[in-house]
Design a protein that fits this description.
CATH topology: tt1808, chain A
Number of strands: 12
Number of helices: 5
CATH architecture: Alpha-Beta Complex
Strand order of the largest sheet: 3-6-7-8-9-10
Strand content: 25-35%
Shape: globular
Structural class: alpha+beta
Radius of gyration: 15 Å
Amino acid sequence: MAAGTAIPVEQYLRTSYRPDCDYVEGEVIERNLGEYDHAWLQTVLGILFRLREAQWNARAIVEQRVQVKAERFRVPDVCVVRKGEIEQIVRRPPLLCIEILSKDDTLKSTHERISDYLAMGVPMVWLLDPQARRGYMFRAGMHMDEAAETMRAPNPGWPEIELTFAELFAD
């Protein structure tokens, strides 16, 4: 089925897309990815989170469906959840959602994705730009902070989630 075609949510949930697609009120929406900078940063994030999984009691999952509303599913590049709160489709707010910019991402679509995560109750969303080697942290109310050298996210009851640009953008 072509992306952009209106379908019921049940059909979206039983269909496999390669790569997976977002679902927004009946519309299947393709995600921009597949280029080296995006894929490499996604890989690095997975490795760094895996190395600190026990320290943070958190698991990073790449391209996991997240139900942000009844008729709206997003597939963040990386989704971070408590180790004890694993779901086949994430329905509880993750600790952190991470989006990696691709060259074809628009400001409007990126803003909508971040707004969906925050409205769901995700306490922090990271937006990483692999080309510019920059990072932005968003929290409730779309408050944005540009990171100087370190990306941070709250992690109640555990050490704060923290990754440096040196780790993220190392060659």
